[in-house]
Each structure stands twice: as C-alpha cells, then as structure tokens.
Amino acid sequence: MGFWDSLLGRSKTAKPDLDALFALPSAAVTLEAATGFRPTGSGSVCFRAAEGGAFATMQHDVQALVGSAEVSTDSYGYTWLVERDPDVSNLVTGLHAVNSTLEANGFGPSLLCSLVGFGDGTRRLAVVYLYKQGTFYPFAPTGGTQRDSALELQVRGALQGELKIEPDLARWFPLWSAPGL
What we know:
Layout: H1 3-7, H2 24-35, E1 38-48, H3 53-66, E2 70-73, E3 78-84, H4 88-107, E4 111-119, E5 124-130, E6 135-139, E7 141-143, E8 146-147, H5 149-159
Antiparallel strand pairs: 1-3, 1-4, 2-3, 4-5, 5-6, 7-8
Helix pairs in contact: 2-5, 3-4
C-alpha cells in the first residue's frame, strides 16, 4: 500500500489463500478433542453463478471433477455445490479443487465461501471459509433463525491456533439451511 492509499484511507483486501483449506483435517482433530464435534462427511462451496456458455461449461467440468456433487440454488440466487466424503481430507481436497477451478477460470470474484459440516450427535456446526477474507469462522445453528453463540466462541478458542479465524464477528454471517451443513 502506498503513501496516497494510506492518506486517502484506501486499503488492500486480503488475497484468498485456498491452501488454507488444507488445515481443516488437522483442525478437525483439534475440534473433536476440544468439543466432541466430528466431521459429518459433507461440505459445500457457495458461489454466484454467472450467465453464459463459458460458466456453464466450467460448472459442468467442476461437477465431473468431484463426481457425485449435488447442486442447488438458495433463495438469494447463490449456487451451492455439495460434496460428501466420510474422509475429511478427501472432502477438503474436493472442495479445494472446486474453488481452484472456479478461480483459475476467472470466476474467483464469484466465490463466497466454503464450509465443512461437523456434529456431536445432537448439534451441528460448520467451519466456514470466507473466500474474500481468507479467514475461517464457526457457525452453529440451533434451529430456525437461532444460533449458539457460546458454542461458536468456544470453537473459535479451540481452533485459534489451527486456522486463521475471522477477527470481525460482524463477518460471521449466518448460513441458515446451507446445503452441506
């Protein structure tokens, strides 16, 4: 950032680090030891679909790449590509491949987030990667439009040394009914 940028209050946004996703398997071990939450075997990538043949072809290629991925669209118009694999390392590799393919084809700005689901038998939790921030945060829905903030803060504490946690709690967006959660 240059002198004029700092003088005028402009800042550079964080560059996404998709390789940060590969820290999730070891973070899953830490999360299980600290809270009892285990990977559910599902995860998803959320992106804004673009119009046109190039995007449709790339989306078809992504689905072929990850195999039996499910595709759905939410009420906000975002596309969710859901992958399932009981091995969290394979799941993360698949999610990384989807993100990388979208980014390599020029659709990086369309990426919103990726998530990996966790559960403890009665509750569910997602560890969410914010693409544009390059950070993670926990999301723990309790049903309807309620969330377990205490659990989210407990998970933040448990994963602080494993993942780059989003420091701004205002960016911990609720992902109600997110596919893959």
